[in-house]
Design brief:
The complex is a heterodimer of chains A (about 280) and B (about 180).
Chain A: E1 2-5, H1 16-28, E2 32-35, H2 47-50, H3 52-66, E3 73-75, H4 78-93, H5 95-105, E4 115-117, H6 118-126, H7 128-133, E5 143-147, H8 156-159, H9 169-176, E6 180-181, H10 200-216, E7 221-224, H11 227-235, E8 245-247, H12 248-256, H13 261-265, H14 273-278
Parallel strand pairs in A: 1-2, 1-3, 3-4, 5-6, 5-7, 7-8
Chain B: H1 4-13, H2 25-29, H3 40-48, H4 52-57, H5 60-63, H6 69-73, H7 80-93, H8 101-117, H9 122-132, H10 141-149, H11 164-172
Helix pairs in contact in B: 1-7, 8-9
The complex binds iron/sulfur cluster (SF4) (2 copies).
One iron/sulfur cluster binds near residues 29, 32, 69, 81 and 84 of chain B.
């Protein structure tokens, strides 16, 4: 199976290990990822502040590139996924928006590209059975809570993925590789997102609560699927002991026995290796 | 009692804020409401009452992080996050100074970098933000260094200029 790939800006910087582990896991599973040539920023949390059309046009431009290929478009970053899916939905469902974007960008929308998060591809196209079969080093004893943040699941009419209040897909994948998924009620709480630099106090407060709830749930670590959440979780925790945050793809790669995993973990701001050593996975 | 502001916000956001019956669900779930002066549902009421000046002088519209918790829970299907965007756009058009100066600065710098390079660029962003914001200079320097030594904030952008397509997008939306 081959997919088009949109890494987004974060995966070339703060979310480096999310991109590396996603590629490694796909390769291990025999899935092809072809990065779209010439992709641009999705507009993230900022374009929509200024202009609705700009916020649709930036991701629509990347969709126009993806249309050249007969493949689904796979996106790891929750924010990028939301923006590209939102632009796709707007063009799919609203003829006026579609023709406006078509003339602005000089392309014809075909609707042929399915925009999908990495989580969906692994759960639906690969399946938990195969994920379990690939496991060489089961993560037995590692207690995790799953954390989706906002943009993978909200608003549900755009995200159309998992459950906005009680999502399950990431838990199923992590259970398949032997991790113990602890119940908690904060999987889709907000981390404070783009206020990280301007109002770090607000983000520290939100992230601090998340870490506290994770500890209360008995978790060693928080599994994430968003580079903005992950960096906020790691950069804005102040209370000790800090709870490390993994990308769920790193945990899958570790369980598959991929040799690169050490390289990903060394990129974390909160070193997750002591936790792994403690449970000896 | 619909003020002109209602019409303007509805037009920009594609919402009908007249549907709001102030059940307070949006405010109850808003992650940043503690830092706000009014909170989302009171803001919508103030829009209806035409209290433009108080809205645009408050920090609330600049604190909204677009998490869509409100939009997901609203029993009347109002995308309050979109109305917040509408309010920010009106506030800028009317020349108000943002109630959260540095939140707006972040968005401006981010879009400036995207306009220039076609992609975001953390080192650039962090550097400019450090210089231009009122956030104390030493905040985040350790974290920035932490990211740098882990090879996560390359100093040079992957490409030197935005593609023709991206430049055209900015030109056509006149931003
Ligand atoms: S949730 Fe909807 S109806 Fe309730 S107060 Fe908020 S905007 Fe109004
Ligand atoms: S989208 Fe904005 S107003 Fe709505 S809950 Fe999130 S932060 Fe609050």
């Amino acid at each position: 199976m081959n997919y088009s790939y949109y890494p987004g800006c974060s995966l070339h910087s703060t979310g480096l290990e999310y991109g590396l582990s996603t590629r490694a896991v796909f390769k291990h599973l025999g899935l092809g990822l072809t990065e779209l040539d010439g992709w641009n920023c999705c507009g993230a949390s900022s374009a929509h502040v200024f202009d609705h059309n700009l916020a649709l046009a930036l991701p629509a431009q990347t969709l126009s590139l993806a249309q050249a290929f007969d493949r689904d478009l796979v996106i790891p970053c929750a924010a990028c996924y939301n923006r590209l899916k939102g632009a796709d939905m707007a063009m799919r469902n609203d003829a006026a928006t579609r023709s406006q974007l078509e003339s602005m960008l000089g392309f014809q929308y075909t609707g042929s590209v399915a925009v999908r998060p990495v989580l969906a591809v692994l759960a639906e196209d690969v399946g938990v059975k195969r994920i379990a079969e690939e496991t060489r080093h089961p993560l037995n004893g590692l207690k995790v809570v799953t954390y989706y943040g906002c943009l993978l699941v909200r608003p549900p009419e755009i995200a159309q993925f998992d459950d906005p209040d009680n999502p399950q897909v990431m838990a199923e994948l992590l259970r398949a590789v032997g991790a113990e998924v602890m119940p908690w009620s904060h999987a889709t709480d907000c981390c404070g997102g783009s206020l990280s630099l301007s109002r770090s106090d607000v983000v520290q407060n939100l992230v601090g609560k998340l870490a506290e709830r994770a500890r209360e749930a008995g978790a060693d670590t928080i599994a994430t699927a968003c580079p903005l959440c992950q960096v906020n979780l790691e950069m804005r925790q102040t209370a000790e002991p800090k709870v490390p945050a993994f990308y769920f793809t790193e945990l899958l790669g570790l369980a598959f026995g991929l040799s690169d995993s050490e390289k990903w973990f060394s990129k974390h701001l909160i070193d997750p290796r002591p936790v792994l050593e403690r449970v000896a996975v | 009692m619909n003020s002109n502001l209602v019409l303007e916000v509805d037009r920009l956001s594609g919402q009908q804020i007249g549907l709001c019956y102030h059940c307070h669900k949006c405010t109850a779930g808003c992650p940043v409401v503690d830092a706000m002066q009014y909170g989302p549902d009171l803001l919508l009421r103030m829009v209806a009452l035409g209290r433009d000046d108080a809205i645009f002088k408050s920090r609330d519209i600049w604190l909204c992080v677009g998490c869509y918790t409100c939009a997901t829970r609203c029993p009347n299907g109002i995308n309050i996050a979109a109305t917040m965007d509408g309010l920010r756009q009106i506030s800028l058009a009317r020349g108000y100074a943002a109630g959260e100066r540095d939140a707006l600065l972040f968005h401006r710098l981010f879009m400036g970098v995207v306009k220039r390079f076609g992609r975001s660029h953390e080192a650039f962003m962090l550097g400019l933000f450090k210089i231009l914001s009122k956030v104390p200079l030493m905040n985040d320097i350790p974290a920035g260094i932490g990211l740098f030594v882990r090879g996560k904030v390359p100093l040079l952008p992957a490409r030197i200029t935005a593609s023709a397509q991206v430049r055209q997008i900015f030109q056509r939306s006149k931003k």
